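seq:
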Amino acid sequence: MVERKAMDAVLRPKRQLTLPRVVCEQLGISTGDVLELSLEGDTLVARPRKKAALEALKEIRQAFERSGITEEELQEAGRRARQEVTRERDSARA
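struct:
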């Protein structure tokens, strides 16, 4: 179970917010990292962008596994699609 502990942060005049060090450490973020902000009711949720991307990648990977398509089949389909687009583009230029 994830322990939840409330901490205070002060919103500065230019709408800047300083996160407590422990929060940054637990999220694995540092200066310059991008956070994805969302509102859930009256709650502000902040997630590191890299983790949001990793979650999306996990969902894509799971969908790929459920589809039953092999990696080789997917790569071959991509090659065929690129070849078709190239042929169409070249014939339009002619």
